[in-house]
Amino acid sequence: MYLKKKVKGKPIKEKRKVSTKFAGILALISIVGFIEIILTSFFEISITEYSAFLWLTIMGAGLVLASKPKSLYETSKKKFDEGSFSRLTTFVLGLIAIVSAVLSLPFINITHPILFASMGIISIISIIFIVVQTWFIKH
Predict the structure, then answer these.
(1) 112 contacts: CB under 8 Å, gap ≥ 6
(2) Would you call 84 exposed, middle or buried from its count of C-beta atoms within 10 A (0-12, 13-18, 19+)?
(3) Predicted confidence (pLDDT) per residue in 72-116, tens digit
(4) Domain-embedded: residue 119
């Protein structure tokens, strides 16, 4: 999406700074949490075993989408700069989130401190993304 600004009477297009893909992913995570609360409260159906899988998968997909892997691959062939490095870090975190999601499934049931640490790190990073994109980046 582009925002229109006027400079000397002529409209110019400016890129939006907030990642709409990532905001959509965060909205999906909120919906999963809300559905979990509704199912537990009203219908006494517990999906807590699968909730970690759901939010980690959604968050991992969001991080991978936000890193723009195709563009990252093309950039890696030409030159690798600071922006590419931050997108590569985002991509790796997304992959770690997806792997953690698969390992947290109840039938695999790997309970290891490294898995819990990666879940915590991904949670902290998502909170930082929310704060930065909500309050610090101009809309």
Answers:
(1) none
(2) middle
(3) 888 877 877 777 787 888 888 889 889 988 988 888 877 788 878
(4) yes
The tally of domains found in the chain comes to 1
Q: Is the dihedral of CA 138, 21, 13, 83 positive or negative?
A: positive
Determine, yes or no, domain membership for 135.
Answer: no
Count of CB atoms within 10 A of residue 25's CB? 23
Q: Is 35 or 131 the better-scoring residue by pLDDT? A: 35
Return d(Cα 59, Cα 94) in angstroms, integer.
7
Residue range(s) defining the domain that contains residue 101: 17-127
CB 52 within 8 A of CB 104: yes
pLDDT(22) > 80: no
Q: Which phi and psi (to 5°) does residue 112 adopt?
A: -135, 145
* Residue with tokens 């400079």, as numbered in its chain: 7
